[in-house]
Amino acid sequence: MTNPKQSNLPASVARRLAEYIQKSYVPGNVEASSSNNIDQNKNTGEYCNTPGFPAPLKSLFIAVCCGGIILDESHLKKTFSELVIELLKKKQIKASDMYHKAGITKDHFSKIKNTKDYQPSKATALAMVLAMQLKLSEAEDLLERAGYTFSPSQMRDLVVKFFIEEGIYDVDEVNIQLHERGLPPLTSNKNS
């Protein structure tokens, strides 16, 4: 692992990050628990499809569980790569700006863009979330399209989630904080 640049994170934010990790970290593999699967189903609206769930409440339930965003059926069917392209257009971000900030190569991004069912590594997906400056609900949605969730048992996930919640979208700074905790960077194409 290369030695990263020095952190520019203010001491107060670094302290809050340490407190956040201490409070949120749960050792072990939480992702395999059945309660997590129930939460995932709620977030995708699948929970609403259970027998006896009142149809008029489905949109309201999805809106509440998905961070206030009412998702139509076409939105739920988008793949990771389709949603990335949609988000880039919606946020008016040039693809080249995003993949440079994320630390992925042009060829890698081209593969993501041109392969409808492409599944990136979780680290790449997290770097793209930061590079597109997604809100937490958008980040969770995009990660889910690639088959991932934020896990309280993964230190890397907690660091990234903290940065999103704080509105700090600097992939280099995230990589520095990961390095300080003995973790690999999100992507290896960055200078940190």
Q: Which radius of gyration do the C-alpha atoms yield?
A: 17 Å
Question: What fraction strand?
Answer: under 5%
Main structural class: mainly alpha
Largest sheet: none
Number of strands: 0
End-to-end distance: 10 Å
Low-confidence stretches: 30-47, 53-60
Portion of residues within helices: 55-70%
- What is the chain-wise order of helices and strands? HHHHHHHHHHH
Shape: globular
| Average pLDDT | 81
Tally of DSSP helical segments: 11
Protein name: Helix-turn-helix transcriptional regulator
In short:
This protein has 192 residues and is an all-alpha fold.
Can you put this structure into words, describing what you see?
Helices cover 56% and strands 0% of the residues. By secondary structure, it is mostly helical. The protein has a domain at 11-27 and 78-180. Helix 1 packs across helix 10 (155-166), helix 6 (95-102) crosses helix 8 and helix 8 runs antiparallel to helix 9. The longest helix is centred in the N-terminal third of the chain and has 14 residues, at 11-24. It is globular and about 40 Å long. Residues 30-47 and 53-60 have low confidence and may be disordered.
Key features of this structure:
11 helices; 192 residues; single chain; mainly alpha
